[in-house]
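Researcher: Sequence recovery benchmark, item below. Answer with residues only.
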């Protein structure tokens, strides 16, 4: 039997994540670019790769009970095949159990040898076929161990969320982290309006609807990748999470303003800032990575957002003498609010990395204050909610007396946690986790 090319491609995606440290979305995009496959094949490959990484801890827990060999001693391709097999058994209801076993054995022959194929066959024939078949850690005796396995989370993250949010809320957050993220679009109101875009997408065969009260949001329910739509190519929308549409609205850029987007790539917030000013302002899109800045230019060109100027430079050493009316610092962060979209982050992030990121975030904010006009507005946003990267960073800057948190529009009050500070948890709705703070720079 020839090897299943879609499953084989999914193994490539997974191996690049855990052997080369490549981000999952980039690894998937690389495989899609290289491999010829149908839309259905791409969707199944995406489900396999993302699902296996998302539920990695649970798959390993199941495998340790049926595999006599330590998992870390297995060849990486064979371990990836076993993990993907358990994921299919538990979560891919369109795949029969015999088909999962046979295709996994074929993959093991291709990626290994007859011996590894026999191992895969023996192990996966004993794989659990539903979650009820798994023997969990005792939830009453060791809640942290249970949550770590049930929601495939690293122990340090479980302990952190238990401490910060308490048992019930921590489990709710962890449950949300293993759900599939919705696909949401930001309507480019410089070219169309929400009602017209919804009508056009529905006419083209997509199933979309409005899920929130944010004017630019449209949610895709079915109908294929939106980037394949002619309306995407025409610049009528940007694929973007709803929470990431909030920072420009908190900044409230006005017509005629000079606005700095300090960490601009890939350009979602940059183009949204220009959109908020109806094209009657200037947005300087700053990013230190030339390749990522190229993505900003591509999106600016496709969306045809006027007044955007892309500059390749480090936010800590910006090549400007001009001061800006408003500045957005959408800083590099742990990304733990986006685990539904980027499940690989939970396996690569750690407390030490978070501490380093917090130092970088504070440095960027200090740089932004120096670049902002006295009395100007500064918004800090991160797609996470760890105290180290949010409350502590804000407190440190506020104590320096150079900028003070101030409340934004009333629309944001639903997420308010302190003056000018807003926290969105992914367990509270269809948004990624985010933290935002609006500052008024000292005069």
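Model:
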């Amino acid at each position: 039997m020839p090897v299943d090319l879609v499953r084989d491609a999914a193994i490539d995606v997974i191996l690049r994540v855990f052997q080369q440290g490549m981000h999952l979305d980039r690894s998937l995009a690389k495989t899609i670019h290289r491999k010829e496959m149908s839309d259905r094949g791409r969707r199944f490959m995406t489900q396999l790769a993302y699902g296996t990484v998302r539920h990695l801890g649970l798959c390993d827990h199941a495998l340790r009970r049926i595999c006599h060999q330590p998992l870390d001693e297995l060849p990486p391709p064979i371990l990836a095949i076993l993990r993907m097999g358990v994921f299919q058994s538990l979560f891919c209801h369109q795949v029969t159990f015999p088909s999962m076993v046979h295709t996994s054995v074929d993959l093991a022959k291709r990626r290994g040898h007859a011996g590894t194929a026999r191992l895969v066959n023996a192990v996966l024939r004993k794989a659990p076929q539903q979650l009820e078949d798994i023997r969990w850690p005792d939830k009453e005796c060791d809640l942290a161990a249970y949550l770590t396995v049930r929601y495939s989370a690293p122990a340090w993250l479980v302990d952190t969320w238990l401490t910060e949010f308490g048992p019930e809320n921590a489990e709710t957050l962890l449950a949300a982290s293993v759900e599939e993220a919705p696909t949401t679009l930001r309507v480019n109101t410089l070219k169309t309006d929400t009602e017209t875009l919804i009508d056009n997408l529905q006419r083209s065969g997509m199933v979309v609807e409005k899920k929130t009260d944010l004017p630019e949001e449209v949610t895709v329910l079915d109908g294929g990748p939106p980037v394949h739509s002619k309306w995407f190519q025409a610049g009528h929308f940007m694929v973007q999470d709803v929470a990431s549409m909030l920072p420009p609205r908190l900044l409230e850029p006005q017509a005629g303003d000079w606005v700095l987007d300090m960490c601009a790539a890939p350009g979602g917030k940059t183009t949204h800032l220009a959109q908020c000013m109806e094209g009657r302002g200037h947005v300087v899109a700053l990013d230190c990575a030339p390749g990522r800045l190229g993505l900003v230019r591509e999106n600016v060109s496709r969306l045809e957002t006027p007044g955007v100027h892309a500059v390749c430079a480090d936010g800590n050493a910006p090549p400007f003498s001009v001061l800006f009316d408003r500045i957005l610092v959408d800083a590099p962060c742990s990304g733990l609010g986006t685990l539904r979209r980027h499940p690989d982050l939970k396996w690569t992030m750690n407390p030490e990395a978070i501490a380093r990121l917090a130092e970088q975030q504070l440095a960027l904010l200090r740089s932004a204050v120096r670049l902002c006009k006295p009395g100007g507005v500064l918004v800090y946003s991160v797609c996470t909610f760890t105290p180290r990267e949010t409350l502590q960073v804000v407190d440190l800057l506020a104590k320096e007396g150079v900028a003070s948190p101030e409340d934004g529009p009333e629309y944001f009050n639903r997420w308010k946690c302190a003056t000018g500070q807003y926290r969105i948890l992914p367990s509270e709705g269809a948004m990624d986790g985010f933290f935002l703070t609006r500052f008024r720079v000292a005069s």
